[in-house]
Amino acid sequence: MPAKGKHRRTKTGPISRGVLAAGTGGAVLALPLIGATGAHAAEQAAPAAKSAAAHSAPALAAKSSAKTYSVVSGDYLAKIAADKKVKGGWQKLYQDNRDVVGENPALIRPGMKLTLGAKASGSAEKAAQAAPSKAAPKAKPAAPKAKAAAPVEEAAAKTADSAASESTGSGWATPVENAVVTTQYRASGASWSSGYHTGSDFQAASGTSVRSIGQGTVVSAGWSGSYGNEVVIQHSDGMYSQYAHLSSLEVSAGQTVTGGQQIGLSGSTGNSTGPHLHFEVRTGPSYGSDVDPIAYLRSHGVSI
Question: Which of 153, 198, 203, 204 is the most buried (most CB within 10 A)?
Fold first, then answer.
């Protein structure tokens, strides 16, 4: 069972903001060679097919020159896609590097090598299929294989948005699945600089999916002093929700999110006695404007 967590807020001045440091480790993306397949096809094809294969060679070389990027601390797929101007956004970046990243797009580690742009292996496969089709028109039924890319992209999108399906019919959700409150709002004690608990703590082992309680816009996402890594979201009713002590962030300031969408993973960053989620609802984006978060969720039809 994860430890019951609390946090202590320091009494110092403005809180600094930074970016999450991810775990360690790495992986290298290996790209398959394609020369042998092209040579064999050229030997078997008619002169016209050889001409067509030679004409397509420059295009193949251009597609296979995809750049690679080495992940550093604080990176997440949406940030990399925006910084490197990846066409198709983080979904395309994840699709092209799923064999490196794995099943969870939120978990990337420093040292991982990501392919930016068209994936070389995909280009090689399409080129290998194209040459025989020129030499032997009867092989045209093989063309529909190109449609296989659509299910892959769809699967990637479903993986990234799986948390959103847990929201209520009204578009609102609890910040973690199977929400269990371990420290109530306004609990008193010397553990907190204000003299009382400004939010509600939810039981959450490190790495638990944390999601937005409703549709809104990310106001801030990064380091926030005693709160550790936090996300603050403004909702359509003008209220704000805050998610603290996260181990990983998946959103950035200015991003629009939906109710139930995963925004990060729980952890124990900042002033925390163990893994948990500290959750607040506020009338403003900053500390000191808190209201009862459980009452707020219930007012939006969330059963908790």
Answer: 204
